[in-house]
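Collaborator request, handled under Task 6.
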Amino acid sequence: MFWSKKTTANLKGMELAELCRVEAEELYRSGSHHCAEAVMEAVRKHCAPELPEAVVDSVSGFGGGSGAGCICGAVSAGTVALGLVLADKKAAMHLTKELHIWFKEKYGVTCCKTIRQTHQGACPVLTGEVAGKVAEMLSRHVA
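Structure tokens returned to the collaborator:
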């Protein structure tokens, strides 16, 4: 498990979630990161700083619905982050399902193309929300 014990000692789950939410949204808005990269960087930095910064590059292809408009890049990166941080397949699968259900309840679909049509301009906010949700789920899981 890569989860940083120091992180959990310094921040409570909701504080960590808010920190990741704000940072991911800022990264997206700055133009330095797309949705997937912003989620991965915020979660990596605050939940698993032991992971190399290069893991952010591993999700570069997920932006814009993997370039084809399919599954939301933020959700895809959240899924990867769960697997990397937990290093527990069963837990990662359970939390991934929870993430997808939460996202679908909030936005109706996980399809990037549809979200961009029905929730125009929502990408910066939903990027932050996904990063925050992932951090909140991780803090709950390891608490």
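The cover message to the collaborator said: "The chain has one domain: 5-142. Residues 1-9 have pLDDT under 50 and may be disordered. Please let us know whether this matches your experimental observations."
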